[in-house]
Amino acid sequence: MAEAVLTRRRRRSWRLILSGGWLGVVVIAALFAPLIAPHDPLAQDLLLQRLPPAWMAGAEPGYLLGTDGLGRDVLSRIIYASQVALTVAFVAAPIACIIGSVLGLLAGYYGGWVDQIVSRIVDVWMAFPPVLFAILLVAVIGTGLHSVILAIIVIDWIRFCRVVRAETLVQRRMDYVDSAHIVGLSRIAILVKEVLPNVLPAIVALLSLEMGIAVIVEAILSFVNLSISTDDPTWGGMIAEGRTIIHFAWWVLVFPLIVLFLTVLAFGQLGEGLKDRFDPVLQ
Fold first, then answer.
1. What does the pLDDT average to over 193-221?
2. Residue span of the structural domain in which 148 resides
3. Which of 160, 161, 139, 163 is nearest to 151 (CA)?
4. Which is higher by pLDDT, 32 or 230?
5. Which stretches does DSSP call E strand in the chain?
6. With bands split at pLDDT 50, 70 and 90, how would you rate the model's confidence at 239?
7. Contact yes or no for 245/252 (Cβ under 8 A)
8. 69 occurs within a structural domain
9. Among the four residues 55, 81, 106, 147, which has the most C-beta atoms within 10 Å?
């Protein structure tokens, strides 16, 4: 039994190390892009268009991952595109988390008319397909990074609300809540001091997962030219461009796709690892 527990702990530790390490690399790349990127991501040179990566025949020194159809350095564009992806992840997801978690806590703990109102709003929001709703919102309010962030917040707060409400309903029936009532704590004090700490691991896991979803949504919107300016590098925009020239320059599509996949995967694994690490029941 002890050996099995130790094995699970090691597995969780490796998951946290690998996912956190990759996200740390992406964050460093985003913060220090002007120092790390070998070239200007917007600089075009048609004489250098569709150069292959450095390890392939026909490559040019200084272009590690090759160039795109306009002669722009793929590595530099991936590095600068991480700024857009992480801005959306670290702004939109926490705001959606706060809004949804507060409503979910109130609905799950107080019940009654509070729960009825929140649940009906969630039902109405869920009637719209999330991605199509995001595209519609951005098309209505205009393109730009702020529009993308607003669209993600408006759509994804319901995910937090549903999960937190369900967790709160479970915690509300626990003996420690009854004990807190007996000793004279107010309902709001019980909610903040007793219920919230036990719901927090689920919120942390969902927040990390939502950051990955926010990155995907931004990539989808930039893929269809509904994110920031098409001149500025985004992972979705690079994938869209690479799709049109995949038979001539596969690296323009593959490398940003790999970075996008690993980043989303790392956010999900980090959330699961943190949930296991801080879940009071598992502890």
1. 87
2. 2-278
3. 139
4. 32
5. none
6. very high
7. yes
8. yes
9. 81
